[in-house]
Amino acid sequence: MWALAAAVIPFAVSTSVSPGPNNVMLAASGANFGFARTLPHMLGVALGFPLLLVAVGLGLGGVFAAVPALHLVLKVAGAAYLLYLAWRIASADGKAGPAERPARPLSFWQAAAFQWANAKAWIMALGAATTYTTPQGDAVAEIVVIAAVFGLVSVPTVALWAGLGVGIGRVLERSPRALRAFNVAMGLLLALSVVQVF
Predict the structure, then answer these.
(1) What gap in Å lies between CA 43 and CA 155, rounded to an integer?
(2) What is the secondary structure of 25-42 as a DSSP string?
(3) Residue 114 has pLDDT above 80, yes or no
(4) Which residue, of 49, 56, 140, 145, has the greatest Cβ tally within 10 A?
(5) Which residues cross the membrane (predicted)?
């Protein structure tokens, strides 16, 4: 299992740190709410994705293959939720000062549930489950190891993106227009990620 973990680490790091819906939202949250208030969001991603990976690895992909309509429903619901979140980020007013910023960041449960609507998360989960499990191996143990690696890798990568957002927020809070422009840009990037879903 140590060899499996070592093999998964480069894949987990490269896919977790690259831009995607989670990281865009974490940067926007860090910029608008600060690091401490973004912690539940970060933990929701760091724990929610490994749970998705376990579900996929233990057969959820087969359920979607057997019932394609269920997969379509999830895609449409996920795309709608992504667009709602994009609007929420883009419509943040950009006024300087914590009192005037948007009401609240994503909660732990919202961020964990978001993994089920995140196209990049599904691609990562399916890629990891199919690439790093073996037909002759203990599938459950292998999936648990892969999920654990992603969980451990997620903690510093989500912190990196939230921290990047905090740094951007400190620069932009001097200018409400610049912060507003940043929020609109992050909202548009998140909205563009809906294209990946379809």
Answers:
(1) 8
(2) HHHHHHHHH-HHHHHHHH
(3) yes
(4) 49
(5) 43-65, 72-90, 143-166, 178-197
More confident residue, 82 or 3: 3
Q: What is the pLDDT of residue 65?
A: 65
pLDDT at 181: 86
Structure tokens at 187: 């909202």
pLDDT of residue 148: 95
Q: Rg (Cα) of the chain, in Å, rounded?
A: 17
Long-range pairs, 131-134, Cβ under 8 A, ≥24? 131/11, 132/4, 132/7, 132/8, 132/11, 133/57
The encoded tokens of residue 175 equal: 């200018």
SS3 track for 47-108: HHHHHHHHHHHHHHHHHHHHCHHHHHHHHHHHHHHHHHHHHHHHCCCCCCCHHHCCCCCCCH
Give the chain's mean pLDDT.
84
142 residue type, one letter: E
**Inter-CA distances, 167 with 29, 33, 62, 161, Å:** 11, 11, 43, 10
Instruction: Please give the distance of CA 106 from its chain centroid, rounded to a whole number.
Output: 11
Angle between helices 119-132 and 35-55 (to 10 degrees): 50
